[in-house]
Amino acid sequence: MKKTAIIIDDERLARAELKKMLQEHPEIEVLAEASNANEGIELIQQLDPQVIFLDIQMPEKNGFEMLQEIDRLPVVIFTTAHDEFAIKAFEISAMDYLMKPIDPDRLMDAMQKLNALEWKESSEGDWKRDARQILSSTDQVFVKDGEKCWFVTLSEIRLFESVGNYARVFFGNNKPLILKSLNSLEKRLDPKFFFRANRKHIVNLKMIGSVEPFFNGGLLLEIKGGEKVEVSRRQAVRFKEMMSL
């Protein structure tokens, strides 16, 4: 099955060269090109590609800043002339990182990694998803906090906690803050997997270790990372309904 792709780079010649090189790899279909981050975001929302080839250093908004604005991430392959970004790219688990000028052998390596990924069998139209629809537990999101950034599969996130206008995201040993409200997150998260326990917390149902009765008819959840979250009395009724046979 062909993988659909978009090239996002502010240099026209760089886009043209990469597109020409990708003609040697028939498993990739380049749907479009973008000359800046904002164009890239629009094209991703319109076309929902499976892969993006993304330059990092671009005017007005760089590649990392662009990724922060995308809810559902494609596979990301960075292409850049600035090797000081290499460590950061690997820290956030990009699938690959290609230095310009791109070496054909390195591109071949990237394509082999891409082909080794598990791609679900689907009809042609299934990939044209609405970028605003509910995110599934298998979708990947980009999380950035200061200089640190990660690609995270939603199923790995055990808890969201409201901190003013921000939300703290709990996964592994990390607890970064993102500029999103809990209400906006709740609208995008699949309620089959994520539950609004109270005004301040959304929990991953798969990450609940234990449930205990709590004050005033509520419940106390112990999350697998060790956090404890109170379920309000009203939400406790919903929780019991959801979790019962």
Strand content: 25-35%
Task: Summarize the amount of helix as a percent range.
Answer: 25-40%
CATH fold category name of the largest domain: Rossmann fold
* Cα shape: elongated
Detail the poorly predicted runs. Answer: 121-132
Q: What's the CATH H-level homologous superfamily of the largest domain?
A: Response regulator
Return the CATH class of the largest domain: Alpha Beta
Question: What do you see in this structure?
Answer:
With 245 residues, the chain is α/β, with parallel strands linked by helices. The chain has 2 domains: 3-127, Rossmann fold (3-Layer(aba) Sandwich); 140-243, LytTr DNA-binding domain (OB fold (Dihydrolipoamide Acetyltransferase, E2P), Beta Barrel). It contains 7 helices and 15 strands. It has a 5-stranded parallel sheet with strand order 2-1-3-4-5, with helices on both faces. A 5-stranded antiparallel sheet has the order 10-9-8-12-11, with no helix packed on it. The chain is elongated and about 65 Å long.
Question: What's this entry about, in short?
Answer:
This protein is an alpha/beta fold. The chain has helices at residues 12-22, 37-47, 63-68, 86-91, 104-116, 182-188, 233-243, and strands at 3-8, 28-34, 51-54, 75-80, 96-99, 140-145, 148-153, 159-163, 166-170, 177-178, 194-196, 201-204, 208-213, 219-223, 228-231.
